[in-house]
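note to self — DONT lose this again. spent like an hour looking for the file last time. sequence + predicted structure for the chain T wanted, 242 res
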Amino acid sequence: MIKGLFDGKRWLALWKAIPEYYVPGFFMTLKIAVAGLAVALILGILFGTFSTMKWKPAKLLSRIYVEFIQNTPLALQVLFYYSVLPMLFSSSGFRIPKFVLGVIGVGIYHGAYISEVIRTGIEAIPKGQSEAAQSQGFSYIQTMSYIILPQTIRIIMPPLANQALNLVKNTSILAMVAGMDLMYYTDSWGSERGFFAQAYFTSALLYFIICFPLARLARYLEIRSMRLPAPKKIVFEEDGVC
């Protein structure tokens, strides 16, 4: 194994395979990560807001989603989407693209975690602010949009960056369903040629290129959030807002 790791012929074969295998896989992983993160953010904001509402059905719906998704393996969820969703279109012969399956898989999974991040951020804002806003005639949506959510950004940005980092790494699970991602092409080339050391080392390097900047960003945001002042209580007066 160690001898094969330093075999020049194997590395030359890998270099020739990069345009055919690694480049498509790398960009597919990026596309799935970006689209999946967008889905996760939408679901996270939606269910995170639901979890802080006084309306009990919304809170219950949010808890069911979060608890079920967080307490079942991502691999099982992806295999479920891969096996069950095509049955909905079995009569038409339509096949769901692997890209869509990947976005659904990581988007729904990380949406549950982002929902908890959003909930924590909202609950960190003093309740007096929302109560004062409602006393001035603000609706729940207006209170969240103009007063609460903008203040949560300072709190939630570091964990959101960490979720983006984890989402990128979790796209590798799509190799199980031939997701055409970086891990899928790595497995394909490594199994085809038997050069597993070169295949996985190169794949790890490419994942590192994506994930390391996100890790640094998360750390920067965490340090920056510690230096910013905590949210202050907003006092509404009859003739204006203080």
